[in-house]
Amino acid sequence: MNFEDVLKKRRSVRRYRDTPIPRESILKVLEAARIAPSAGHRQPWHFIVVQDRGTREKLAGRSNWAADAPVMIVGLADAEASPSWCYNDLGIAFEHVVLAATDLGLGTCWMGQTRRDAEVREILGVPDRFKVIALTPIGVPDEVPGPKERKSIKEIVSWERFGGKPD
Ligand SMILES: Cc1cc2nc3c(=O)[nH]c(=O)nc-3n(C[C@H](O)[C@H](O)[C@H](O)COP(=O)(O)O)c2cc1C
Predict the structure, then answer these.
(1) How close is the Cα of 108 to the center of ligand 1, in Å?
(2) For residue range 36-58, what is the model confidence (pLDDT) as tens digits?
(3) Residues contacting ligand 1 via CB (< 6 Å)
């Protein structure tokens, strides 16, 4: 898939088939995270690959559709390795995960987990130095999400200074 297609095809998928995902695809997605940029090259992240159905159900919580995907990846930020930047860095690496999965034709859905930090920490045995930031199911999509309005370029961009218009 070319880059523009990956960007446009990435959507939050909330219905999955239980088709297994080859280990090779999981590794490709993790490799995309591994090579992400990070402040001071500290790479303050850790990823947990969850395939066990029972654990996926616990992680999905009320979003039970998320447990239908055969794989979940949980993104942790290492707050000891990079206290100021670990959240930014994890966000970048996690988006690499999502885009790499899209490129393989797989569905994902960013699910913010900061409010469930304690619960997820308990389920997965996460050490204290890591903050639980996000998880995503990864699986073969069983839906094509409908179009979604985006803010226009005009609404989100200034030129030269805040509020500035283009020439
Ligand atoms: C940081 C973050 C947290 C999100 N958390 C959730 C979530 O908990 N549950 C969910 O269903 N979607 C979640 N989403 C997905 C957003 O709802 C989705 O990205 C947004 O509506 C735009 O739709 P799209 O991803 O299909 O383009 C999250 C997205 C981001 C970036």
Answers:
(1) 10
(2) 999 999 999 999 999 999 999 99
(3) 11-12, 14, 63, 109-112, 145, 148
Helices (H), the chain: 3-9, 23-34, 53-60, 86-103, 117-124, 153-156
**Does the model's pTM come out above 0.90?**
yes
Nearest CA to ligand 1 atom 21: 12
User: For a pocket test of ligand 1, which of 15, 16, 63, 111 has the largest count of ligand atoms closer than 8 A to its C-beta?
Assistant: 111
C-alpha–C-alpha distance, residues 124 and 131, integer Å:
12
Gap between the Cα atoms of 41 and 38, Å rounded: 5
- With tokens 């490799």, the residue in question is 31
